[in-house]
Automatic annotation (TrEMBL):
This is NAD-dependent epimerase/dehydratase domain-containing protein. GO terms for molecular function: oxidoreductase activity, acting on the CH-OH group of donors, NAD or NADP as acceptor. Residues 20-141 form the NAD-dependent epimerase/dehydratase domain. InterPro entries: Epimerase_deHydtase, NAD(P)-bd_dom_sf, NAD(P)_dehydrat-like. Keywords: Oxidoreductase. Belongs to the NAD(P)-dependent epimerase/dehydratase family. Dihydroflavonol-4-reductase subfamily.
Length: 352
């Protein structure tokens, strides 16, 4: 996949050539953050839990952007005491905190919040101690603002939090199997809230923003290594696999993976701070994805049928133009369509 050329509308607040730390660099979201940063002229230090499982990263991005600009370091435990005081956090101009627990069926919210905050608070404290750090971006999710439900009208603002999920997750009268993915949503809500609380309390000298993407679709850089992703779900639908999982995912919003990565780049470049940036390019549902696949592969006659899942009726009053303005600050005028995102995902998996 060729990236759209980066054309900064103004001199970047953090100059190209600076070193940016990206956690969880082998994941779908983070790998696109890495890609966009490299395309923008930055150097990247990416953390992974296992160098062996992430050996594809350096050659992949060297082929795309040239050798010597991406360094991969192994950090098996992001929450280990003192881990962020080590040398790999030094000399960086920005930190992109992307890695995090992805367990939709977690049951112990308190433990998950404690573990994640041990890592993120460690990064924030390390950033505060490093004079070179000018920006910190935390990856959250729209699920920290609301629970997607078909045909439910609601209004979401930048001040919205998923209090309903937090309440349901903490309701001892409801058995775990009656809570669905509310505990995971509650976990993500509480982590983002705690980070904003830290920023309000500590008043760091660096810019702090959060990115809240919804369903992320698009190219995967290594189809063998990046199977466990939302883009991978597109292939499930193509293959008629794991429909029980897909049918539990209600209609909501989506964003192209490269567009989402570009939001992080734009936050560095523009120097804005104190923003919750919603990564919501358009409405999404699996029946619509299925129609794209049928048009893309007309020779395939055995696509499954999906029941009508209803429509997302969330009204986003979140200054969506703010996210689009960030894209435009890097030379991209519009969101990538769902159709193109689905095609890119499938082309990635069918090319191997």
């Amino acid at each position: 996949m060729a990236h759209r050329p980066i054309k900064f509308a103004a001199p970047p607040a953090i100059p190209p050539g600076s070193l940016i730390l990206v956690t969880g660099a082998n994941g779908l979201i983070a790998s696109h953050v890495v890609d966009q940063l490299l395309a923008g002229g930055y150097r990247v230090r990416g953390t992974v839990r296992s160098l062996e499982r992430s050996a594809w990263l350096e050659p992949c991005f060297a082929a795309r952007h040239g050798a010597g600009r991406l360094e991969i370091v192994e950090v098996p435990d992001l929450a280990a005491p003192g881990v962020w005081d080590m040398q790999f956090s030094r000399g960086v101009a920005g930190i992109m905190s992307v890695a995090g627990l992805v367990d939709l069926m977690l049951s112990d919210v308190e433990a998950a919040v404690a573990d994640d905050l041990a890592a993120v608070h460690g990064m924030l404290r390390a950033a505060q101690a490093q004079p070179s750090v000018k920006a910190f971006v935390l990856t959250s999710t729209v699920w920290a603002a609301w629970t997607p439900e078909a045909d439910v009208a609601r209004t979401v603002t930048e001040a919205s939090w998923n209090d309903a999920a937090v309440a349901l997750a903490g309701d001892a009268s409801v058995p775990r199997d009656g809570k669905g993915i509310a505990p995971f949503m509650a976990f993500r809500t509480r982590v983002e809230q705690a980070c904003w609380d830290w920023v309000g309390r500590e008043k760091p000298r660096f810019a702090f923003n959060t990115v809240l993407p919804d369903m992320v679709l698009g190219t995967v850089f290594d189809a063998r290594a990046q199977t466990a992703s939302t883009s991978g779900m597109v292939k499930w639908l193509h293959d008629g696999a794991r429909l029980d999982v897909l049918e539990r995912i209600p209609p909501q919003w989506f964003i192209n993976a490269a567009d989402n990565g570009r939001l992080y780049l734009a936050l560095l470049a523009t120097g804005v701070s104190g923003q919750r940036v919603f990564g919501c390019a358009g409405r999404f549902g699996w029946p619509a994805v299925l129609e794209v696949l049928k048009a893309q592969y007309p020779e395939k006659q055995d696509f499954v049928d999906l029941a009508d899942a209803g429509q997302d009726k969330t009204e986003l009053q979140v200054q969506s133009d703010k996210a689009l303005a960030l894209l435009r600050a890097t030379g991209q005028d519009s969101w990538t369509s769902m159709e193109q995102s689905v095609r890119s995902a499938m082309e990635s998996y069918l090319s191997v």
